[in-house]
Amino acid sequence: MGTIKVIHISDLHYSPQNLIESDRCTGYSIQYAESAKPDLFIISGDATDHRIDVHSEAAKALIGRVKQASNIAPVILLQGTFSHEPKGTLKSIAHCQGKHPIFVADKLQQIIFTKEGNFIGSSDEHFTEKDQDLLFNAKSVITAIPVLNQAEIAAKVGTGRDIQYEMRQYILEYIKNSQKFIAMAKEADIPTLGISHGTVYQSITEHGFLMTKDHEFMPEDMFDTGCSAFLLGHIHRHQYWTNDQGQIAAYPGSIGCFHFGDDDPKGFLEWNISSIRAEFKFIQTPAQLKKTVTFNSEPDLKVLEELRDFEGELRIQYLVNEENLQCVDRVKIESMLPNAEITYDQRIVKIHRSRAEGISLENDLASKLEHWSKATGEKIDNLQSKLILLQEKSVQEIVRESLSPA
Questions:
Q1: Distance CA 274, CA 227 (A)
Q2: What is the pLDDT of residues 300-332, one digit of tens each?
Q3: Domain at 3-284, CATH from 3.90.70.10, 3.30.70.3270, 3.60.21.10, 3.60.10.10
């Protein structure tokens, strides 16, 4: 039975802000691949976090890592979310290939990965029976479903319609038209896999939210392709789906930790895929943790003391009254947590002073003070007697009497 080994990484999010995390974790996956010796290396979208200048350190680091990967095995770069990975970004990266070719999957297309390690893309959205001879030299058949341009789909199906619904119908039609060639590949004992960047119904985000809207796939849609494995990108939490036929669809999750509140292990997948089944192994990367500690008042030093050995980014959220701002000793907190990169999220509770209704009707200061105490709930204790003292004596007399021996 023919099998193919694939290293599958996703959501690298290279940018000036993420450079250290992205590059450390991506570098780890490439180092692993050097010893694993995969047949294919796949990045399933969002290699960048946003449009980045080609001369920036982040762009140079990403291009260098992709070139390293292509010195190990042929590489497929799948188009991700356009806001993260603007159109044309991947083709610029692909010009810097190493020993093996880099294929950019930026449209609905089927791809034959040849025994020599090259790629043949379908001229249309899918191969047909006329392309059957290509299977004699195929090591794998790949069905690509990258992020689609909504404007292009709207131009094909017509405007004034629910574009999310129409895009899903368009993808389902593509899956249906791709099934025949996938079945031919399976019959020839050739491994088949799908790659996509999108949201699966009821997938769970890195913050624990269940995705029930704006999804491209139901789990059964991916299995309907007939592919043994479906390699996904976009959701940052690692998760997977299986069925009784041995098919598996999986997100590796993001390569690193890019958001506070994301406490799951980060990593990538090592796949072994045949014509009838697939399996993967999750490999954890040395992602830097991002932890949030929340207080409803000033930070509790006893709680923070328990985090003395924490290494990573720590966000401390707290509420503090305006008059108690000086009570938060950041120098002491930072000395307690020498290995943490601390960010403070300080929320100040403003003090609003309001006039005690009816106070102007009182005839003397003592009565006004008592009225104010009742209206605001503030205790005045022995202030009344001191107020009377101030009214009856001069400051010098009060000081002299206070300092004289009893």
A1: 10
A2: 999 999 999 988 889 999 998 887 888 899 999
A3: 3.60.21.10
